[in-house]
Amino acid sequence: MGRVGTVFAVAGALGAAAAGSARAAVTRRRAASNHPSRGAGTRPRAAMTRRRDAGTRLPAGPDDGRPGHWQVVTIDRSPQEVLPTGARPEPLRRLGDAVEVTVRPAPGDRGTELAARPVPGAAWPGLAAHLLGDDPALLVRRTLWQVKQLAEAGEQLRADRPPYERTEPDGTWLPPPDRPAG
Amino acid sequence: MRALCWTSGGELAVRQVPDPELRNEHDVIVQVRRSATCGADLPLLAGRVTGLAADDVLGHEFVGDVVEVGPAVRRHRVGDRVVVCASVACGGCWYCRQGLPSCCDNGSTEPAEAEAEWGHPVAGGFGQPRAAGGFAGSHAEYVRVPYADFGAFTVPEAVGDDRALFASDAAPAGWMGAEGGEVRPGDVVAVWGAGAVGQLAARSAWLLGADRVVVVDRHPARLLMARQHSGAETIDLRHTDVAAELRELSGGRGPDVCVEAVGGLAAEHRSLADRFTGRTRMPEAIREAVYACRKGGNVFVLNSGARFVDAFPTGAAVHKGLTVRGARQHGQRYIPMLLDRMARGELRTEHLATHHFPLERAVEGYALFRDRPEECLRAVFTPQEPHSPPGDTAVRVA
């Protein structure tokens, strides 16, 4: 994940420079009323209207000028704990201006609702686009889960490395870092 | 180290694999003393579950000694004898703090992928496909335990390994079946399945004050064990009209609580027509439980292997006002209490370990567990016993 994160640290910077004022305006428009939980009553109607007008199913994806779905996670910590400095938490910060972000307290004293979605027309540059495939939402979602895991569990859980990742070219196993070989 | 690995095409092999390593600050490494087979592994052996890769290590129910400790671990030190919950949960999310650790949000390394499978991410698991977190299993000399402060529990001195072993998975599952079914004093409780989980559900129902406990199964040896060790009455479903018998035993009302604990099936027998139409198997035990349960009663489903089923009796459940619930066991919530009960002798589980094998013979142990359920309730592997010289030993078990 570190590799992807690094890519998007670059992506954010490049994206902000390339996308220009149009996307900046979209980003500025983010407001409390834009939050998925608060705007839920209007979005389905709008979507249906668009469908009728178009007469056919609209293409999905962020490149048609529509914002994608909000990706949301609820973090069982207060907003002050999730964003102690008021800035976006890592690793969400690495996505830069390629995503818009909203934060609000979760109802029922359940912590913080952290939402993000790709900015329409955001330029996900070369390698980043390759990593994203057709679905930038998945990267956004994964990033939100990482923020949540860091806040709640204190670390980003890592899988065991499979044997093939620990094999020397001569076929022997790499020993664990803290243990002697053999 | 040596470990029992899934290879491919239903084959298992005891192989040399890399030792586990600390991957997170809250990890410990445990040297395994005992590791048990479980019915939940049988679909993996049969090749009916995707996501396993060659050399993935199986096993999730174990007890052992801590040999390495991550820098953020506070509750354990090297040398502790611990039993480890079979599911991996963080202890810090809303679900863990509500006492629902098997619903943990942070037990998987890829929560977004787990969402695709279940709708939401759930707790991870040892020795499971990658979507369950990517944690190697316990049929090995060593195993890495994430979130060790929350998922590993020091075993009281009075509790032996063969007793503590089942506090990892079978005992919390059985307890949850009874507690989740809301067993109250005076209740009649029926349990489908006389395996380790079913027997411990029956025993838990007694401990919660049930007046009568009935276990249903098809294997006479298991039913005998349920009578001897769980104090249950038994019904052999091969020779008895189960519903009629349960009505008779419950004054015509039906059991107040029904617990389904039949476990995973070794093989799914589907006709050509079923395969063509995509029809899945019928949940026979759940259907029987729903029909037998008294009006307004509780049915608790423990079989996590039943991914999709057809012909669920929705009408009976609605018209009788039943509560049907299910869960993977919330071990982190129950294990301290279960270890206390084990130390006091209220909960004895040694009889469930019907067969012991050194790790080198683990393939043989699985074959016995799968093919001779009337004889083998649980095969238990003992990796610290002396083993034969290294070299692959593979046996086809599918």
TrEMBL record, chain A:
Q: Which UniProt keywords apply?
A: Signal
Q: Where is this region: Disordered?
A: 27-68, 155-182
InterPro entries for the chain: START-like_dom_sf
Name the UniProt record assigns to this protein: Integral membrane protein
Key word Signal present in the record? Answer: yes
Give the compositionally biased regions (Basic and acidic residues).
155-169
In terms of Gene3D superfamilies, this protein maps to:
3.30.530.20
Question: Which region is the signal sequence?
Answer: 1-24
The keyword Metal-binding appears for this protein = no
TrEMBL record, chain B:
GO: which molecular function terms? oxidoreductase activity; zinc ion binding
All residue ranges annotated as the Alcohol dehydrogenase-like C-terminal domain in the record:
196-264
Boundaries of every Alcohol dehydrogenase-like N-terminal domain copy: 25-149
Q: Which Pfam families match?
A: ADH_N, ADH_zinc_N
State its cofactor: Zn(2+)
Keyword entries, A-Z: Metal-binding, Oxidoreductase, Zinc
Q: Which domain of life is it from?
A: Bacteria
Q: Return the PANTHER family for the record.
A: DEHYDROGENASE, ZINC-CONTAINING, PUTATIVE (AFU_ORTHOLOGUE AFUA_2G02810)-RELATED, ZINC-TYPE ALCOHOL DEHYDROGENASE-LIKE
The entry sums up its family as follows: Belongs to the zinc-containing alcohol dehydrogenase family.
Protein name, UniProt field: Threonine dehydrogenase
What lineage does the source organism belong to? Answer: Bacteria, Bacillati, Actinomycetota, Actinomycetes, Micromonosporales
